[in-house]
Structures are given as C-alpha cells and as structure tokens.
Amino acid sequence: TMKNAVPQAASLLLEKLLLLVHVRALPAASGGEPPPPSTAAPGYYDTSCFKRGDLLEVPRTLFIHFGIYLGENRVAHLMPDILPAITDDRRQIEQVVTNKRLILGVITKTASIRVDTVEDFAYGGSILVNHMDRLFEDQVLSSEEAARRAEKLVGATAYSLLWNNCEHFVTYCRYGAPVSFQTDKFCETVKMIIRDQRSVLASVLVGLASIVCLGLAPSTTLPTIFIPFFLWMAG
C-alpha cells in the first residue's frame, strides 16, 4: 500500500506544482479572447547558436521545460493541452497554449507535442543548450535523428507527470531513452518526507507508551514528545 501511495502522492504534488509554475509562466486568456502576444519579440533570442536537433532547456521557478530545436526558429516541445482532444482545427491548436487549456490538459492527462517559435517556447526565460549531454555521454544520437524523432511525434499524445512529460519527450528524441531526472528526484524527496513522518509518529507513540507503562510525569514528558510532532504538522 505504501509503495502505491508514494507515486500517487508524488503525482498529486507534481500536478499542483506544475499548475503553479505554468499559471505564472504562461499567458492567461478566457473564452473566445485571442491569446496575448509573446513576452519576447521576434529576434529576442539569437538562434544562430542553435543547431537542428539541439536539446533546449528553460529553467522555471520549480521545474525545467524542455524542447528539441528543429531549425528556422522552431522548437518541438510537449505541453499539457486539452484542445487537441476536442478539435481538429489546427489554427486553434497552434495558438499559444493558455492557462485554461493547460490546466484542463493536466486534469484530463492529455497533451500535445507542438512546434512553436523559440520566443513562445522560452517565454522570456533563459535557454541552456544540450546541457544534459554530459549525463548521457556516448548515448547522444545524431542531431538529425533527434530532430526527425521530434517531428515524427508532433501531435496529440497522452500526458503523465511521472511517465510522459516534456523531459521524457526530449530524452527519447536525443538519447533514445525516455527518462525524467527532475521527476525521479521529486519522487525521492517525497519518499524521504514519508519516511520522516513515519519516524516522527513512531517516536510520539513510543513516548505515549512510556507514560502509560512507566508512569512518567506528563508535565515534563509530554512537551518533549510532542515537539517533533508539532514541527511535523507545521511543516
């Protein structure tokens, strides 16, 4: 049960964090209003240093967004999006993803691998190029193979914070294996938190048992026992 609870807890927390990150990072639009323009004007980024097949990273507040550069100021990247599941109108789908579309995509676990300009992909953030290559060494595929893989996958896709997010997409394209280091790290953090909580609760129970069995003075023992418990609750 605990093994099943850990991925579920991680998924729930990741969903909340992802929504917070994207709600701040992406444009807001409502109803039939047209999406707002990009925060960065065309030419804001020097694309001359990008090569077709490069892996681009944009650090956000809590997470990193990933994409594959296709050349000519185009980036393929995976984003939660409800629209491809309800319409085939490419003109609507190709518009900048709004908060409403993203949130509904996360909830329904639907997404699209889309092609945007570098400006729309980065949305004003700084860009790192091939920063993950050092982790894969000899596993880096040719630049053309990476770009072709990305282009082949463009379109609607299932979405999962743990198993199919933007990092899984780019690592599959450039390294041949879909992995997500930031998701793995977050899951490990959740496991540590759960273990810590269990140890605190165990210490509380031991302390209460000592009061009952040994007749220790509650006035001196209870504060000591419940300090870690209250700290855990406050955290």
Automatic annotation (TrEMBL):
GO biological process: retinol metabolic process; visual perception; vitamin A metabolic process
Residues annotated as the enzyme's active site: 166 (acyl-thioester intermediate)
Signal peptide: 1-25
UniProt keyword terms in alphabetical order: Acyltransferase, Cytoplasm, Endoplasmic reticulum, Endosome, Lipid metabolism, Membrane, Sensory transduction, Signal, Transferase, Transmembrane, Transmembrane helix, Vision
The keyword Transcription is assigned to this record: no
Pathway(s) per entry: Cofactor metabolism; retinol metabolism
Bilayer topology annotation: Single-pass membrane protein
Domain of life: Eukaryota
One Gene Ontology MF term: phosphatidylcholine-retinol O-acyltransferase activity
Gene Ontology terms: cellular component: endoplasmic reticulum membrane; late endosome; perinuclear region of cytoplasm; rough endoplasmic reticulum
KW Transferase (keyword) present: yes
Domain LRAT: 55-182
Subcellular location: Cytoplasm, Perinuclear region; Endoplasmic reticulum membrane; Late endosome; Rough endoplasmic reticulum
Segments crossing the lipid bilayer: 200-233
Catalysed reaction, written as an equation: all-trans-retinol--[retinol-binding protein] + a 1,2-diacyl-sn-glycero-3-phosphocholine = apo--[retinol-binding protein] + an all-trans-retinyl ester + a 2-acyl-sn-glycero-3-phosphocholine; 1,2-diheptanoyl-sn-glycero-3-phosphocholine + all-trans-retinol--[retinol-binding protein] = all-trans-retinyl heptanoate + 2-heptanoyl-sn-glycero-3-phosphocholine + apo--[retinol-binding protein]; 1,2-dioctanoyl-sn-glycero-3-phosphocholine + all-trans-retinol--[retinol-binding protein] = 2-octanoyl-sn-glycero-3-phosphocholine + all-trans-retinyl octanoate + apo--[retinol-binding protein]; 1,2-didodecanoyl-sn-glycero-3-phosphocholine + all-trans-retinol--[retinol-binding protein] = 2-dodecanoyl-sn-glycero-3-phosphocholine + all-trans-retinyl dodecanoate + apo--[retinol-binding protein]
Enzyme Commission designation: 2.3.1.135
Protein family: Belongs to the H-rev107 family.
Stated role: Transfers the acyl group from the sn-1 position of phosphatidylcholine to all-trans retinol, producing all-trans retinyl esters. Retinyl esters are storage forms of vitamin A. LRAT plays a critical role in vision. It provides the all-trans retinyl ester substrates for the isomerohydrolase which processes the esters into 11-cis-retinol in the retinal pigment epithelium; due to a membrane-associated alcohol dehydrogenase, 11 cis-retinol is oxidized and converted into 11-cis-retinaldehyde which is the chromophore for rhodopsin and the cone photopigments.
Protein name: Lecithin retinol acyltransferase
Organism whose genome encodes this protein: Corythaixoides concolor
